[in-house]
Amino acid sequence: MNANVRRAEIVRTMMGRRKSTMCELAEEFGVTDRTIRSDVTLLMTEYPFETMRGSGGGIMLPDSYRPNKHLLSERQKQAIKEAIPNVCPVFAVVLREILEAFG
Known about the structure:
The chain has five helices and three strands. By secondary structure, it is mostly helical. The two termini are 31 Å apart. α4 packs antiparallel against α5. It has two domains: 58 residues, Arc Repressor Mutant, subunit A (Orthogonal Bundle), CATH 1.10.10; 36 residues, no CATH class. The chain has a three-stranded antiparallel beta sheet. The mean pLDDT is 91.
């Protein structure tokens, strides 16, 4: 995985997770803590990541930052809601995640 792909994945991961540690991300992406720190430093120029040192610290993305929220129209949200009872449970979970992320 190249650096640009990894950084995009860090952003995607943090959009869902909202909080993590540098060590967790390093292990997840198979790189060193230092690499993740460099990635996060660069990403902080474009995204409102916050970092905190020490116990309970790590990297955080404020709950208020939801750039994809409200991308679905009311018609699209209604169609997804009506489809949920008619699909298999795995797809229902995915459709609910889409509503949460983009509705």
